[in-house]
Amino acid sequence: MSFKSYVILMGVVLFAGSGAGETIRTVEREDRVFQAGPGVLISDKAQEGVDTDVWPIPAVYYREGRFSIFGPRARYVLHYEEDDLLVGATAQMRNEGYEDDDSRVLRGMGERRATLEAGLTVRKYFGWGRVTAEWTSDVLNEHKGHEIELLANRWFNNAFDVEGLRMLPTVGVNWRSKQLNDHYYGVEADEARGFRPAYEVGSTVGLLTSLRVDYPLNDQWNLFSSVSAEWFDGEITDSPIVGQHYKLTAVLGAMYKF
């Protein structure tokens, strides 16, 4: 993995911080929150033969008023209502790419780089949990595509009757545009070889699942872990450079509240 990819992947750990648990009430507060600590990232991509990466990485979360940064994502709340409707502008890094020396199957492929995406998030809170719809689009013209996600999740406090233990299971679906899929999982005609035929990927609908767990050691220290998986459909998994039906990211660590 290149140094650039490592730096971008550093941000993935940050997402496991408290930012993902924000509510309208935290948006209304003007106090500043900063948390940091050690973390470990495990990244398992779908491309054939690419090794699972394990990295020690700092974990950081920052929020002040309507603005927050958590991992590869930044958000500014544009609008919220008392019935717990939130609309926000979102920016995020996507690191789904590779270099041709990452595996034998990828040799001779052009480098697929990480990119910056921006979009819009709409979140509605209900008595049972929350539903989030999000649209993002490439702003650096790397893959020139789009993605739409629809997620449902709920916080469980004092899970399994353990004081302070919080769990956030999430399920959802996503739509990925042809441009996004073809860039990271397709094979161009000039990249084709005898063992790697040209392949064009269309738009897809996939399944998203994740589980986050938080546990406070005391008023300052908090343990966290998060595992997320994206399950691909046949348009992607039939590609000659894809070796599995999913990509997986896991993070764990501890954060100190300053």
Automatic annotation (TrEMBL):
InterPro entries: MipA. One of its GO terms (cellular component) is cell outer membrane. It is found in: Cell outer membrane. GO terms for biological process: peptidoglycan biosynthetic process. Keywords: Cell outer membrane, Membrane, Signal. It comes from the Bacteria. Belongs to the MipA/OmpV family. This is Outer membrane protein OmpV. It comes from Anaerohalosphaera lusitana. The gene is ompV.
